[in-house]
Amino acid sequence: MNGQIDINGIYVHPLLIAAIVAYAVSLPIEWALARVGFYRFVFHRGLFDFALVVVLWGLLAAALSTGTPFALSF
């Protein structure tokens, strides 16, 4: 097994799928933050939204790599 996911004959790395899922999860979070007026306190909305996606992507990547979600290993 090579660690990649086969989607109709196309091999896709799991981190790419994690990035897509992180972006999809960030959209309702961004909508909720805009709805409650959180962005009034943010200096640069685009940078904040990008950082949110990166943090979510990192959490998903950590959960995929350790096998257990949010397990820290030192």
From TrEMBL:
Keywords: Cell membrane, Membrane, Transmembrane, Transmembrane helix
InterPro entries: DUF1656
Organism superkingdom: Bacteria
Transmembrane segments annotated in the record for this chain: 12-34, 46-72
Pfam families, sorted: DUF1656
Name the UniProt record assigns to this protein: DUF1656 domain-containing protein
Species of origin: Sphingomonas molluscorum
